Amino acid sequence: MRADAVYGRSLALFAAGDVRGATLAATAPEMTAARRDEVGVAVLSEQAIAAFTPGAGRRPLPCSTRAAPMPRRPATSA
């Protein structure tokens, strides 16, 4: 039940426009890796869309210029 609450909080913060808060909520220990990835993809998508919004000018994507705040899972060998 706690994992669902943490996930819901992260989604609610994201929907309210608090991308940073959503990212921080997604790093809670109760969050599953799959849900953490889902929130991470949503955050990166939001950053990409914002970077290419008319009137935003040319600038690098924020995700490419700083370290991601969410922990990364180890790469699997192919």
Oligomer: single chain
Helicity level = 55-70%
Helices and strands, in N-to-C order? HHHH
Please, how many domains? 1
Number of strands: 0
What's the tally of helices?
A: 4
- SS-derived structural category: mainly alpha
Mean pLDDT: 79
Distance between the termini: 35 Å
Low-confidence stretches: none
Strand content: under 5%
Shape: elongated
Largest sheet: none
Radius of gyration: 14 Å
Structure in words:
The protein has 78 residues and is mainly alpha-helical. The protein has one domain (2-65). 58% of the residues lie in helices and 0% in strands. It is built from four helices and no strands. It has helices at residues 2-15, 19-26, 33-51, 62-65. The longest helix is centred in the middle third of the chain and has 19 residues, at 33-51. The N and C termini lie far apart (35 Å). The mean pLDDT is 79.
Provide the fold topology:
Blueprint: H1 2-15, H2 19-26, H3 33-51, H4 62-65
Region (Disordered): 55-78
Key phrases:
78 residues, mainly alpha
Write a compact overview of the structure shown.
This protein has 78 residues and is mainly α.
